[in-house]
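In this section we walk through a basic example: taking a raw amino acid sequence and producing a predicted 3D structure, encoded as discrete structure tokens. The instruction is simple. Fold the sequence below.
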Amino acid sequence: MEKTQTDETKSSSEDQGLVYELAFHLLPTLSDDEGAKIVKDLKALLEKNGATIISEEALVPMQLAYTFVKKQEGKNAKFNSSFFGVLKFDSDVN
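The resulting token sequence is shown next.
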């Protein structure tokens, strides 16, 4: 996770704590519903641990600069793309 503090958040960071950004890649073979469920689960996990979700960016397909290998059903599957998403949140938990 990367800590970010933009001009927008600097003035309110004392009130809200630091702003964090979670960026992630998901397999390109997921359906819209599967991707939405994963994002929902990530948000629930963050909130369960004291985070407040500030914003999220919709999953977008992305061509990768590299090929990655993921074992699926006992075989290595190669992917050149992914779904990319971002969640921004704040938390007083260190």
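Looking at the output, two observations stand out. The first helix runs from residue 7 to 10. The radius of gyration is 16 Å. In the next section we compare this with other chains.
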